[in-house]
Write a structure and sequence with these properties.
By secondary structure, this protein is mainly alpha-helical. It has helices at about 1-5, 10-20, 25-35, 40-75.
Length: about 80
Amino acid sequence: GILKEVENGRKVGDVCREHSISDSTYFNWKAKYGGMTASEIKRLRELEEESAKLKRMYADVSLEVRALKDLFEKKGW
């Protein structure tokens, strides 16, 4: 919504002040989300959350595998 306000002709500084964000935050959002629709942004966020979840799962499994390898090396198997 903030990006749309600026696209509709309002000044960046005014919009940022109204929403209590810095100009740099606005420009970071514009670089990341500029030109996207709300549904595309929602889908992007869902994919980012799923990616983070999968990375955590991979890290957990990697730790378990490492622990099992260490155990087998100690047992001499």
